[in-house]
Amino acid sequence: MNHDIETTITVNGKPVTRRIAPRTHLIDFLRDELGLTGSHIGCEHGVCGACTIRLDDKIVRGCLTLAVQANGRRVDTIEGLSDSGELAAIQKAFHERNALQCGFCTPGMLMAAQDLLLHKPDATREEIREHISGNYCRCTGYQAIVDAIEIVLTQNRAGRKSQVTA
Amino acid sequence: MNARAELPLHAPGTTTDRGYIGKSEPRANAKRLLQGRGTYVDDMRFPRLAHAVFFRSPHAHAKLTRLDLSKAATQPGVIAAFDGRAVAEHCTPWVAVLGHLKGIKSPPQHAIAIGRACWQGEAVAVIVAETRVQAEDALALIEADWEELPVVTDMEAALAGKVLIHPELGDNICFSRELVTAGFNEAWSKADVVVEQTYEFGRHTGVTMEGRSILADYNVAEHSLTVYHSTQAPHMMQDIFSRHLNIPESNVRVICKDVGGSFGIKVHVYPDEMATAALSVMLRRPVKFVADRLESFLTDIHAREHKATVRLACTKEGEILAFDLEDLTAIGPYSVYPRTSGIEGNQVVNLTGGPYRHKQYRAKLNVVFTNKNVTCQYRAVGHPIAVALTEAIVDLAAQKIGMDPAEFRRRNIIPDDAYPYTAPSGIKFEKLSHQQTLEKLLTLMDYDTLRAEQVDLRRQGIHRGIGLAAMIEVTNPSPAFYGVGGARISAQDGATLRLDPAGMVYVTCSVTEQGQGTEGIFGQIAASVVGVSMDKVRVATGDTGTMPYGGGTWASRGAGIGGEAVLQAGKALRSNILDVAAAILNEDKAKLDIVNNEVTDKLSGASKLTLAELGRVAYFRPDTLPMKFQSELTVTRHYTPREYGFVFTNGIQASLVEVDTETGFVKLLKHWCVEDCGTVINPMLVDEQIRGGVVQGIGAALFEHCLYDEHGQLLNGNMADYLVPMSGEMPDIIVGHVETPTKTSELGAKGAGEAGTAGAPGAVMNAINDALAPFKAYVSNQPATPERILRALGKV
Question: Which of B78, B228, B361, B581 to pair with B782, CA 20 to 30 A apart?
Fold first, then answer.
């Protein structure tokens, strides 16, 4: 008996329609069905944050979300936000500050970082640390990541200020 | 400040510019990872790819009396189901012993256990299916009956040996070692003060972000095997696949694309990975296995688990006379292949007391089998234990004679002018800088101010502690580490540099990349030595089919050994390029130089020829060159450290903590590390690697613990229950350097990868105990959980 459900999701700006088994996790759907392997699977129980993606305007764990739950909604992944240029500033800061080593946590970390940049533009260093505390990184010691996010927050604040002045 | 190593970047008499050495260049190869366009094993898509899922023992020690795979084998999508016997016909077992660890013993281990499981999580069957989902569904239909056997989980019970895990071995002892210096007893009898304490260190594990992953692709027509592997040591694995699967070595190719963290976890032979390679041979198609997180906790090597008593004898003036160590460590039911599980304990014996100038030492080590997951070399192998034991007992001695712990260390560390130096354990130091690193640390942290602040805050009921931990670190290992014991693990590494027609330098090296930035620093070295800009260099690693032979990445050897091979190859390529330039220009080679992608006149600096033009002529118009001239624009050079067993480094860390004496919680306020890895090739990469190491060490000190019950059941084998450091709890970490380049190579680089992890647990434990000192409370178990701190305070 086939219980697959027809599901349409706007993935990185393009609608895709598939029949999906209800138990399929969104992260498995993205990776296995669509070949979007940039989001990674680290723990499959919602702790490590490697599979963090954006569902509509909120970041979610791809391993705790069922693909069918995304029906009629928008999903953005590292691939899409890289191509659109939305992550360019934070990616540049990560690169220049070496805020990644093995890179496995990085796509999820960037998603969490961008969420902070969008929704908490005045975050303090402590708030940055708090905000990315759901994203596990075994390599860096976190400091470079915090530095990179802080650099972009500062740049953005300077940008806003000059806009106001102008 | 030490003089930096002078590199042969330009011909004598022109300039001593070090090029990119010492500069914080971002890593070119990190860009793809930032866009999610890396290639980890699980990202690869192959036609006819099959997925392996393992059936694992629920018991710590049990006889498998019945195994029925028939129902599972007929499920949708299932290709095959095998037990240990079937796989053993294609993969021979191994025994993890080495000749130089005298007396070490371990039983044969199979890719899939046959008839008996010796730890919870040991695989006894495998399902292969078209998708992982199908394989996992089928797994639930395997029928197995077990007869439980007596379980040994306690180290001391294992040592006593009333129940034997492997009766054929005669006892539960894998390896033991004793050492005593000639004047030990006499020195001990002269001591004014003796301090003694027993410490326990829990098991923890690497928790790499990417689980262990392997994709094996056997081609029956060629009898060849290509393995895409998340590993640190591709050539070692090539040799092992070859020997255990009976395929000629030249027919085995191991490829490491991006590796999602390793830390020593991925330098060992894992039975399920060997089984996956065998399955590809058996099924004549590509087979993939990726450990999920629950499997990782049960089967990735664990590490540490020691119970050690350490004693220190000193004079009342504070001169350390001797250390005395008794260490007991448990490794699970098998010594891990091919490096063995005897090295960790052996390192503790070698390294305890390492920074100090005492003359006498006694040590006794027992390494025992238990029915828990296996343990083996994880980042800093033995160092965190040796450092914590040494530094904790040093603090107790300082306290007993009433001396400040920094002053006590100042009096006892080996002076910077005492080298070369042989420690009582027999290890040899080329040149260390304990005095410089100590003074630099105390300045950096403003030690005296912190001490004064600590006194003030105590009056307000705020309990801060300052902990110091001096350390030494094994880096750039020679063949003495593994090769002399019979392991087919290369101590030498090679680099190939090629000037391409467009003037680009293509670098390949046998040292691999797992995020440390090895490829980045190889690019910096190559660009500097040849004389090109960074954008003209490409670096690739991790392919036994196309790259020079070498050991790979472990024991902090990448920069020191691989980097030197790149440097030597760069010198040779540079010379060969100048030969071509001399032929094209019809000028004396000695008058030419290479600067910023161009051949120049050495004296005037005038541009003569771009490397792109030189490449064009050399490759496409060699007819214009003298008849007998042949250009050689690809060169390979190798490097093996030989003069010392290891090129030791040194450093010192400090931790500042605040202990809440009501809750037992520890707040990490700041952490400092000053270390000496010789020539620093890229400060930004070194600093963040040290910080990452420190954070792993903090994890060991405060959070991480693989908890087993008395039945050998792992109680917290998932990421929710096993605590790892997250950004919110971590302090900012200040890193400083002293540079004492090693003279064993031209590059002068020593390793830096393990220093952070080696020193942090000792520094944090000392800081906690410093904070608890007014309460006469003392924590001697790691991790120092809030419960343990409250117990020490007598509050629970």
Answer: B361
- Beta-carbon pairs below 8 A across chains A and B: 172
DSSP state of A165: H
Q: What is the distance of C-alpha A92 from the center of its chain?
A: 16
pTM for the complete prediction? 0.96
**Taking all residues of chain B, what is their mean pLDDT, rounded to a whole number?**
96
CATH code of the domain containing B684:
3.30.365.10
B701 found inside a domain: yes
Residue B2 has pLDDT above 60, yes or no: no
CB contact under 8 A, B45 and A35: yes
Widest CA span in chain B: 89
- Which residues of chain A does B517 touch, with a Cβ-Cβ cutoff of 8 Å? 98, 101
Among residues B677, B550, B557, which one has the least CA distance to residue B22? B677
Give dist(CA B710, CA A82) in Å, integer: 50
Assigned CATH class of A87-165: mainly alpha
B516, B604: one domain: yes
A residues 66-105 lying closer than 8 A (beta carbon) to B: 77-79, 82, 91, 94-105
Give me the residue label for tokens 């003495």. B480
What pLDDT is stored for residue A161 in this prediction? 81
Residues B691 and B587 in one domain: no
Decide the pairing of beta strands B123-129 and B78-83: antiparallel
Write the single-letter amino acid at B389: L
Q: Are B341 and B269 in contact (CB under 8 A)?
A: no
Do B567 and B594 sit in the same domain of this protein?
yes
A61 contacts chain B (CB < 8 A): no
* Phi and psi, residue B136, nearest 5°: -70, -35
* Residue B48 CA: distances (Å) to CA of B128, B131, B229: 12, 10, 18
Question: How do residues B452-499 score in pLDDT, each as one tens digit?
Answer: 999 999 999 999 999 999 999 999 999 999 999 999 999 999 999 999
Note whether ipTM > 0.85 here: yes
Query: Is B768 contained in some domain?
Result: yes
| B230 shares a domain with B365 | no
CATH of A5-77 among 3.40.50.1010, 3.60.21.10, 3.10.20.30, 3.40.50.720? 3.10.20.30
The pLDDT, as a whole number, for residue A165 is 67
pLDDT for residue B10 is more than 70: no
Residue at B612 is within a domain: yes
Q: Where are the beta strands (DSSP E) in B521-597?
A: 537-541, 592-595
Q: Where in chain A is the domain with CATH 3.10.20.30?
A: 5-77
Contact (Cβ atoms closer than 8 angstroms) between residue B99 and residue B338: no
- Among chain A residues, the shortest Cα distance to B731 is held by A143
